[in-house]
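Quiz preparation item.
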């Protein structure tokens, strides 16, 4: 049974839509003429204007912290009983530096945003989709989920959760018309490194960062095709396969060099 479709239609919820990969994903849904609900924890006016300019049928916004229950509740209140045709659960952020140099509230915010907030929205909205046997869910994981991540330890572990969670959920739903796809970006040119305080690292200073528009297109196309997951970018595909076969200690050492503070100088 092919789950391939030409384009998205109807009502699409996009989290993390104020910048980077999420803004580009929202722009693609706008080009398909969807009704949009954009979610982020800071100013969404630019995202709203960009999606209106790209042809969205309508654009509403919710500014909330998805690391909190009240943030998730705000999104569900804004959706109310409206049928969600696609959920793009992309919001996430990292945290650089050694694990014991991080403050607990920062660590908890990464876990609560990337795992609890994301999975809570997938559960609430995905269950409605399963009950009516229709809908699509794109979740932004990461190639980092395939690597033990010294100096970005908790972040990589949250993405390991998300990467596996999506493949498992896709399988659970394989006899339904509900599709779950995971997008695994590599190092991408967004606000991510600034927010994670990793601009002085080799990853943060990499001059071969992916373009967020290309990464978004890879994820969007994979969702339309009904794929389980997509690693965006040829070199990232190779890197992820190596990370899966090399001993974990070797991969951890490779990640250490990429993420150690000051390593970019
Ligand atoms: N950039 C990379 O190298 C890379 C690689 C692999 C995976 N990713 C993943 O790609 C996704 C998008 O990140 P990006 O690279 O596009 O970075 P970005 O430009 O910083 O975008 C992150 C988005 O998520 C939102 N967000 C973060 N924490 C939130 C929270 N607690 N509540 C609500 N919204 C929140 C941000 O909102 P505000 O800006 O308004 O705070 C922003 O809209 C993330 O899941 C990230 O982990 C990024």
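Solution:
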């Amino acid at each position: 049974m092919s789950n391939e479709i030409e384009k998205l239609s109807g009502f699409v919820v996009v989290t993390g839509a104020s910048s980077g990969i999420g803004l580009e994903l929202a722009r693609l849904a706008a080009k398909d003429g969807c009704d949009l609900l954009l979610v982020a924890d800071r100013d969404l006016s630019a995202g709203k204007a960009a999606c209106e300019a790209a042809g969205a049928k309508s654009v509403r916004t919710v500014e909330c912290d998805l690391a909190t229950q009240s943030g998730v509740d705000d999104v569900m209140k804004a959706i109310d009983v409206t049928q969600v045709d696609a959920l793009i659960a992309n919001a996430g952020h990292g945290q650089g530096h050694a694990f014991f140099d991080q403050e607990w509230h920062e660590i908890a915010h990464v876990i609560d945003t990337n795992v609890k907030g994301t999975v809570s929205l997938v559960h609430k909205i995905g269950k409605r989709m399963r009950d009516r046997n229709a809908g699509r869910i794109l979740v932004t994981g990461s190639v980092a989920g395939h690597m033990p991540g010294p100096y970005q330890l908790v972040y990589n572990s949250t993405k390991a959760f998300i990467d596996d969670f999506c493949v498992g959920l896709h399988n659970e739903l394989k006899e339904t018309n509900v599709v779950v796809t995971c997008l695994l970006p590599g190092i991408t040119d967004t606000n991510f490194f600034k927010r994670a305080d990793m601009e002085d690292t080799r990853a943060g200073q990499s001059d071969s960062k992916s373009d967020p528009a290309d990464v978004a297109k890879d994820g969007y196309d994979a969702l339309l095709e009904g794929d389980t997951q997509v690693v965006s970018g040829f070199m990232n595909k190779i890197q992820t396969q190596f990370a899966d076969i090399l001993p974990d200690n070797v991969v951890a050492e490779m990640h250490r060099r990429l993420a150690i503070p000051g390593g970019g100088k």
